[in-house]
Amino acid sequence: MNRDDDGYAERVAFYDTVYEQPERALDLAWLRRWLPQQYFGRRVLELACGSGYWTQYLAPAARAYLALDVSPGALALAGQRPGVGGVAFAAAEIEALPKPAEPFDAAFAGLWFSHLPRQRREAALAALHGCLAPGATVILLDNSEIQGGQFPVMEYDEAGNGYQRRPRHDGGESRVLKNFPTEAEFRILLAPYGAAEMALLRREHFWLLRYCLPSRH
Ligand SMILES: C[S@@+](CC[C@H](N)C(=O)[O-])C[C@H]1O[C@@H](n2cnc3c(N)ncnc32)[C@H](O)[C@@H]1O
């Protein structure tokens, strides 16, 4: 995710439009059913929760839930969602989060990885895994390359990150870092952790990566 302001604070107020596009409805209906089942009774850490679209569906299933985001504006919106009464919210990046006294046994990040600069991937995953218990489940959800049809990647930086131009509600345009990772990239990134049961599911509009940390790590 870009540490620079990529315009998200301005976009957050109407961010749910991402979830209102009719062609995504089928994938989203399936995700809204499947995802909460993965977190039933778990201690969950959610990264980059944004305006809490997924928080509202996952938190009611969980035993404990911490949702992070760098944007206080986004967290304020997330706190107004139904079903988030038991959620602890924190304005933090995963790399800045102190190691929890009791590790989480599950993690979720929606539409986070695609915005994470490639050069920060290793550090972000190390920080995330440092907060998790052995055997913890991690699920990353993100846009399939179809999203790139709507907002084409117009340029790449020297690290290989792609950038889209997205319209803002004030009539301006934001330059947004957006990557579309491959399964091979995940296998390389996760190899040092001995991640088990890694599965990458590609639906039409979203991809979903699920893996478990080894029982001892
Ligand atoms: C595309 S939104 C996704 C929001 C939400 N997870 C969803 O699926 O609807 C990306 C979120 O990442 C947050 N963000 C940006 N940089 C971040 C960082 N370095 N650490 C954590 N969150 C960050 C933004 O504030 C924004 O809320």
Task: Describe the model.
With 217 residues, the protein is an alpha/beta fold. The chain has a domain at 44-143 and 182-212: Vaccinia Virus protein VP39 (Rossmann fold, 3-Layer(aba) Sandwich). Helices cover 24% and strands 29% of the residues. The strands form 2 sheets. The chain has a 7-stranded mixed beta sheet with strand order 3-2-1-4-5-10-9. A 3-stranded antiparallel beta sheet has the order 6-7-8, with no helix packed on it. Strand 9 (196-202) and strand 10 form a beta hairpin. The longest helix is centred in the first third of the chain and has 14 residues, at 25-38. It is globular, with a radius of gyration of 16 Å. The two termini are 26 Å apart. The model has no long low-confidence stretch (mean pLDDT 92). Bound molecules: S-adenosylmethionine (SAM). S-adenosylmethionine is lined by residues 1, 3, 8, 47-50, 53-54, 68-71, 74, 93, 110-112, 115.
Question: Characteristics of this structure?
Answer:
globular, alpha/beta, 7 helices, 7-stranded mixed sheet, 10 strands, binds S-adenosylmethionine, single chain, 3-stranded antiparallel sheet, Rossmann fold
- Average pLDDT works out at 92
The Rg value, from CA coordinates, equals: 16 Å
Helix content: 10-25%
Q: How much strand content do the residues show?
A: 25-35%
Strand order of the largest sheet: 3-2-1-4-5-10-9
Distance between the termini: 26 Å
CATH class of the domain at 44-143 and 182-212: Alpha Beta
Question: So how many helices?
Answer: 7
Pfam families: Methyltransf_25 (PF13649)
Protein name: Methyltransferase domain-containing protein
Domain Methyltransferase: 44-135
